[in-house]
Amino acid sequence: MDFSTVFESDDGTVNEDNILWHWGKLATDAGKIMGKSFEIYGHIKEDIVKTGFVDVKEHTFKLPIGPWSSDKKMKELGMWNFLFFSQDVEAMCLFILARLMNVRIPPLF
């Protein structure tokens, strides 16, 4: 199982004006700096088949962030996903910016 670090929206609201679009680009760029790709979700099935596996099935799922969905199950998934993302994003950003991108982050105090 793999996931995309690039955020998308059905209604087109996640575009270059949206902070989540920038987060996806930052994560993708950081992966390249580390020599790791966060972009395998687009070709993972093809790669698995090339290694010799047969009858490979690929299933794609939407995973919302936040309780915006009118569907009860998606709303709950979105709330949990928002919790996980919001608790991890600060540490990930600090690591990516300070260690990989050499951005000087001033002390808070």
Structure description:
This protein is mostly helical. The chain folds into two domains: 1-59, no CATH class; 62-109, no CATH class. The chain is built from three helices and no strands. It has helices at 19-34, 44-50, 72-100. The radius of gyration is 17 Å and the shape is globular. The model has no long low-confidence stretch (mean pLDDT 86).
Keyword list:
109 residues; mainly alpha; globular
Write the layout of secondary structure elements.
Elements (H helix, E strand, L loop, with lengths): L18 H16 L9 H7 L21 H29 L9
What is the percentage of strand-forming residues? under 5%
Q: pLDDT under 50 segments (min length 5)? A: none
- SSE order in H/E notation? HHH
Structural class, from secondary structure content? mainly alpha
How many separate structural domains? 2
What integer value in Å does the Rg equal?
17 Å
Our count of helices gives 3
Q: Biggest sheet, in brief?
A: none
Question: What is the straight-line distance between the termini?
Answer: 41 Å
Q: Characterize the overall form.
A: globular
> In total, how many beta strands?
0
Mean pLDDT: 86
Proportion of residues in helical segments: 40-55%
Quaternary structure classification: single chain
